[in-house]
Amino acid sequence: MIDFINFYFLPGLVLGSIYALGAMGVSLLFGILRFAHFAHGDLMSFGAYIALSMVSIFHVSPFFAIPASILGSSLLAILIDKVCYKPFRKSQTVVLVISSLGVSLMLRSFIQLTWGVSLEVYEIGVIKDAITFGGNFRISENHLVIIIGTFSLIYLTHIFLAKTKLGKAMRAMSDDQDLALITGINTERVIQATWIVGGSLAAVAGVFLGSDTQLNPRMGWDQLLPLFAAAILGGIGRPYGAIAGAMVIGMAEEISSFPFFGTEPLLSPAYKTGVAFFIMVIMLIVRPTGLFKGRSF
Amino acid sequence: MDTLYGWMMYILSLLTVGGIYAIMGLGLNLQWGITGLFNIGVAGFFAVGGYASAIVTTKFSPNHLGGFDLPFIVGILFSMIFSGLMAAIIGKICLRLRGDYLAIATIGLAEILRLILKNEVWLTNGPRGIPGIPRPFEDLAQPWSEICYLLIILLILAIIFYGFEKAINSPWGRIMKAIRENEEAAASTGKNVENLRLETFVIGSIFMGLGGALLTHSMKYIGPTASDPLVTTFLLWVMLIVGGSGNNKGAIIGAFIIWTVWSASELLSGILSYEWINRLSYLRVFIIGFILQVILQNRPQGIIPEKN
B111 vs A277: CB contact, 8 Å cut-off? Predict the structure, then answer.
């Protein structure tokens, strides 16, 4: 039981936290711009690599480099939107998806050209020491930072969406675009705000992911399926649903390799990504609006 | 003379691989250009076709399933059967999804397939891949062996092109376009839209599998490192969009143009420093992405637009 919590449940919570930060952005963007943003994972990678540069220049902990990552990824997101997505606002959504797939590959090759292709680690300031509770429960400080950081950001995002005018406009646009237009919402401004929120959350997710494992140019792309799975599970356009979806996916991925029967893992860890995908397909077929009644296109 | 010979071999390989992409492009054009099915799991079918043919045609090996040492023609038939079967199963589950969702589902399946092919060592020899795959006419002297293989590719391409042109201009082709333009209207004429969509999905995927097999025989090796699945999928999409989707000629011309651009960057490696040669393979993905943006924003109908 202790092993289950230390080695499967807590890592699942950490993974779920990272997914939650990415999936909230995917869900918001899907709701407002109406397309699956395939370059979202690469925004995560970009944030992670910005932090890597900060770490190597200033020798600070990657967590202190997060503001720089947020700035970098949000600016990049706004730039990409202007150049590669804005021309297609009136086109079929598939054009946007293709465009974002192209952006994803371009971003990855940009990272490969700038930072190289080898595996990198932050090392400095990422504390792997474990904190022990009540004798047996162990959690590394790094994981604690990730979980607390994620829940603080979720709270901040919640305040923004619930209390500010811009946040309310975002939710309104996600619920009903035509109605939002009639009330005189400046759609381009809302879209820009969505990119800032999505880009910032992705940047933090990237840094957390990098500090938990290591950095490579594919790191973001490899998270894309779980992110989509979480967003769909929670209901598209429902950022709170995405958080729940992310936790379910993160837990399911980690717990799927727990040796429930005998000593062998239930599912080889190599197939973790498959778990996210399996849940997503079932959900799409059984209940395409997700757990929390999102929209279905 | 040597340089001239080198150029000739280069152009032969350019046309061979370009032709293989054109065959897959026709398959994708049938799915996306004609019927509007958003399949970005191309690499999955490509890999199934490649591995099926590799396992069927190689000599027996203890490292992976088979090989069964059967002729090339049996290999490519099996590649088509397996990719078609897989498409039928996936299509049954996923084709009820529309647009973006179908895209996410197909790319997800392709990713899972990549994991299976990489991890199931008994089947595919895992990360080491399958070497020693026979190529027809490989016993002939250079360059005749390459020329003969190119002729096989071009012959297959011509047959498929002829068949597709017939099919698209038939009542079947017209109902497919009707589904793409307005599904409800097509359904209201009493057509079974679900079955028709499944049909094009399976037929298109069969040719993606065939393409995978033909490329595998051309390279004589298949493994998880042979090609990045995402890049294969992306290249094929860019080819179709650049050439003009909805148009078979466009699909073929796009394939040859983009493959030329893609592999021409290899020619640069002769004049670049060692450090940049390594970077070149990343730079060219960037270049293809850039071309896609330019075409999408300035000429979304492609080089040869669809005829109405």
Answer: yes
For residue B137, the model assigns a pLDDT of 87
Which residue from A99, A274, A281 is facing B105, i.e. has the nearest CB?
A: A281
Decide: A25 and A197 in contact? Cβ < 8 Å: yes
Contacts of B292 in chain A (CB under 8 A): 98-99, 102
* Interchain contact, A87 vs B111, CB within 8 Å: no
Q: Cα dihedral angle (A211, A212, A213, A219), rounded to 10 degrees?
A: -80
- Per the prediction, chain B carries an average pLDDT of 90
- Give residue-wise pLDDT tens across range B178-197: 888 888 888 888 888 889 99
Extract the residue ranges of chain A whose pLDDT is less than 70: 124-129, 294-297
Interface test with A, best of B31, B35, B101 (most A CBs within 10 A): B101
Count Cβ atoms below 10 Å from residue A218 Cβ, excluding itself.
17
CB atoms within 10 A of CB B269: 13
Higher pLDDT, B21 or B98: B21
**Binary contact (B101, A284; C-beta < 8 A):** yes
B130 versus A124: the higher-pLDDT residue is: B130
- Distance CA(B245)–CA(A134), nearest Å, equals 64
- Would you state the structure tokens that stand for residue A9, as one six-digit string? 């449940």
In chain A, residues 208-227 whose CB comes closer than 8 Å to chain B:
221, 225
d(CA B298, CA B28): 22
Looking at residue B140, its pLDDT comes to: 85
The average pLDDT across B191-205 equals 91
Task: Return the C-alpha torsion angle B237, B243, B247, B253, nearest 10.
Answer: -110
By DSSP bridging, strand A130-133 and strand A137-140 are antiparallel
CA quadruple B119, B122, B124, B127: dihedral sign: positive
Query: Which of A109, A225, A285 is nearest residue B111 as measured by Cβ atoms?
Result: A225
Q: In the prediction, which pLDDT does B207 show?
A: 97
User: Can you read off the two tokens belonging to residue B117?
Assistant: 């092919």
- CA B141, distance to chain mean position in Å, is 28
- Alpha-carbon distances of B294 from A121, A186, A252, rounded to whole Å: 36, 28, 41
Torsional sign, CA B82, B127, A230, A267:
positive
